[in-house]
Amino acid sequence: MALEGAPFHDRDGEIWFDGTMLPHRDANIHILTHAMHYASSVFEGQRAYGGEVFKLTEHSQRLVNSGKILGFEIPYTVDEINAACNQVLKSNGMETCYMRPVAWRGSEQMGVSAPHSKIHLAIAVWAWPSYFNAETKARGIRMNIARFRKPAPFTAPTDSKAAGLYMTSTISKHEAEAGGFADALMFDWRGQVAEATGANIFFVRDGVLFTPTPDCFLNGITRLTVMDLARKRGITVQERAIWPEELESFEQCFLTGTAAEVTPVGSIGPWNFEVGSITKQLMQDYEDLVWRK
Predict the structure, then answer these.
(1) What per-residue confidence (pLDDT) applies to 124?
(2) How far is the CA of 269 from the CAs of 14, 95, 244, 255, in angstroms?
(3) Does domain 14-126 have CATH number 3.20.20.80?
(4) Which 8-state DSSP code applies to residue 94?
(5) For 42, which of 6, 66, 95, 236 could close a Cys bridge (C-beta 3.0–4.6 Å)?
(6) pLDDT at residue 130, rounded to an integer
(7) Distance from C-alpha of 200 to C-alpha of 286, rounded to nearest angstrom
(8) Residue range(s) occupied by CATH 3.20.10.10 in the chain
(9) Amino acid 136: pLDDT
């Protein structure tokens, strides 16, 4: 995949950093920051549409919850995080963009145990269109099967949006792209269908929407939004275990996520899907919702 735009450390604008707006290039941390060595970091991915961050409070609350799951308290309330996010939008003069709040353990202590390290919070923003362009979405993306699986909830904090949990996602997406695919489907530790590398997954059969139960991966905010949109359309939604053998019986497939929004899938390994009417309708409904049409 070709690099696009300036590297992320060398951009104009401002980043909210521990309560202060800093020039983008000056928002730095030390090399011995605990988060870099031990993955003691949580983050959110959220989008602003027309000057309003979609589901902002839900994202801020999940950030706070993720920190608690990793054993640290973010030193800001949900309301304060919301206000900081809106300040970042205003300061950077951006109305439609991607936003990344991130919280982490600092450099006061090194070693696996670092209970007295300072907890930092930063919020950055940048222009980032949907993962996939309109032409790619029209035909549906191609996915392969990842060699790594999602861990069991008794082996990792799978209900947090923690940086460390994305290690296998990065490896899997790199391998997919190297093979000419757009993304990869990840199974869970049992061998059941879980999600893509950074997005939840849905299937359609006989007018019914199916999606895996999120018992070892994030119950995405976009995922919940799309399920609600489907029910408002009178579409039955079944949330249950899905085994790979069932994939050949599904007619449609799509991904959901803040970055991916609603993205149709044309194929996963040997299984092919159409970009059908339910997928198209939910794509449109989601777009109408975030843009307040």
Answers:
(1) 98
(2) 42, 38, 11, 15
(3) no
(4) -
(5) 66
(6) 78
(7) 15
(8) 134-290
(9) 83
User: Does the annotation mark 173 as catalytic?
Assistant: no
Per-residue pLDDT, 2 = 36
Q: Give the 3-state DSSP-derived string for 237-248, with helices as H, strands as E and coil as C.
A: EEECCCCHHHHH
Length reported for the chain: 293
DSSP state, residue 164: G
Residue with tokens 């690099």: 3
Convert 160-176 to b/e letters by CB count within 10 Å (16 or more is b): bbbbbbbebbeebbebb
Instruction: Report d(CA 138, CA 292) in Å as an integer.
Output: 23
Q: Using CA atoms, how far apart are residues 118 and 123, in angstroms rounded to an integer? A: 17
- In this structure, which amino acid lies at residue 101? P
| pLDDT computed for residue 1 by the predictor | 31
Splitting the chain (293 residues) into consecutive groups of 10 residues, what average pLDDT does each group show? Answer: 71 97 97 98 97 98 98 98 98 97 97 97 93 84 98 97 98 98 98 98 98 98 98 98 98 96 97 98 97 84
* CATH 3.30.470.10 intervals, the chain: 14-126
Query: The tokens of 97 are what?
Result: 């963009």
CATH of 134-290, one of 3.30.70.20, 3.60.20.10, 3.20.10.10, 3.40.50.300: 3.20.10.10
Q: Which two tokens mark 74?
A: 């973010």
For residues 21 and 15, is the Cβ–Cβ distance under 8 A?
yes
